Amino acid sequence: MGEPAYAKKMYRWVDENGNVYFSDQVPPDQVQHKRETLSEKARVLDVLEKAKTAEQIAQQKRLDALRKEQEKIIAKQNANDKVLLSTFRSIDDMNKALSNKMASFDAGRKVIEGNIERLEQQLKQQQQQAANLERGGSKIPPKLLTDIATSKQQIEAGKQELARHQQDKQTNEKEFKADIARFQFLTQSNSDGKPSNGDSLAASNASNELGLFVCQDAAQCEKAWKIAGEFVATNSTTGQDVESEKLIMRAAPQKDDDLSLSVSLLERNNSQQIFLDIRCRQSSIGNELCAGAKAQSIRQAFAPFIQSSLAAQQ
Known about the structure:
The protein is an alpha+beta fold. The protein has helices spanning 54-87, 91-135, 142-188, 218-235, 284-291, 293-313, and strands spanning 10-14, 20-23, 35-38, 44-48, 202-203, 211-214, 240-243, 247-250, 260-268, 271-280. Residues 109-175 form a coiled coil. It comes from Methylomonas denitrificans.
């Protein structure tokens, strides 16, 4: 049977010294503590969380803003995964596509190199013509001098185009190989060959502590990113899910005691920052885990771990 509507309620709370109180009224000097509303049968009817300080509220706002940015990165990764899986059927298909793409780049390179070779031959002829005129005691026509200068400029422009073309090839090859590795992970991550589903990840909003490392420069951030990946792997209880240049994320938590860590590389206030987030299973126990001391201690240890690891590398 349910509790009578007129049943008298009791409150239970714990003060800053760990003392437990039961009363039908909460004194004004105790209202800041987390408290439970109990029925006459000691059943918890409601829970009022502990009042946050102004500093904690400000931290929570920053944490929410960082999480929104990270969620954008995760959403983009999920969208890329869908495109990847709908575009290719197998690793062989991707390797063939990569081979064709590299062949296309090589063909483009040959065209550019051919143009440079033609211009160099043209310049050689122009310079030879100018040398013959000088040996014969004739003045070199202004048009020929202009043509020589133009040929040199065109050759230099061609070399710059070739360098850009080669850089584009390297970038495309690197990105394509990363896509191949991602496709392989997605299609082999489960025994049924289907990609993992990260929709069940539940981000805890209870913690008011930030896991944030602000990089001094790009070189330090590159080292810190690798260290952050080690931290995620060490402190997570779930397997690998995503590992890219801007996001490292462990697989979705499946059990109530699972901790799934992720780090994202963010651009904020003209600086690079590495943000740690901790996710737990969408359950009452999971939410308590992410709001509890264990998750808080992991978050608090993140930046010091990176700093000490960087110092050890010097």
